[in-house]
Amino acid sequence: MTQKLRLTPDTSYMLGIYRCNRGKRIELSSSDDDMIARFAKLAMDEFGIEPNKIIIDSEGKVKKTFFYNSTMVKRFEKALERRVNIFKYANAYSGNYFAALFDCNGGKDAKGIFLKGMDSVDEVVLERLNIHTDKRGSKDYLANQSAFITLIKDYSLRIASIIH
How far is CA 122 from CA 16, 85, 110, 118, 136, in A? Predict the structure, then answer.
């Protein structure tokens, strides 16, 4: 039986990163060096991953950073099954989780702030936090953007550049 993920705000951020890129490894693709550095630091500090086990692969401007850890993947999968209960309050845990989703798959266009690739569980969690979404294609637009910004502003690396 897999041990539960020891949840902290930082592990919640990594859980959000994993949620964006689910697979056999824990991965982040980004052209933002600050995001790559945060990912690597959290991997080492929170999960004890050795620096030489974190692989950074450049593909033009985008860097794919990842590490393999099957135990952590299993723990992340189990935690994702419990998202509705884990992130039921607007606090540092849910703020970090949704900040990671936004940093990986969020943005702003003429229609507003959006998250791409959310599933129905993420939508329910946001609804319970009183943040309503409007699905249009692959994007979920946030109906009450100020509530979402308030939730993630202290944790997201990208939100400041988008709202200014």
Answer: 10, 12, 23, 6, 15
pTM of the model: 0.93
Residue with tokens 């910004």: 149
Comparing CA positions, the residue from 123, 35, 11, 26 lying closest to residue 70 is 26
**pLDDT value at position 59?**
80
- Long-range contacts formed by 125-129: CB under 8 A, 24+ apart: 125/83, 125/84, 125/87, 125/88, 125/94, 126/98, 128/84, 128/88, 129/87, 129/88, 129/89, 129/90, 129/94
Can you give 1-41 as a three-state secondary structure string? CCCCCCCCHHHHHHHHHHHHCCCCCEEEEECCHHHHHHHHH
Q: What are the backbone dihedrals phi and psi of residue 52, each rounded to the nearest 5 degrees, phi first?
A: -75, -10
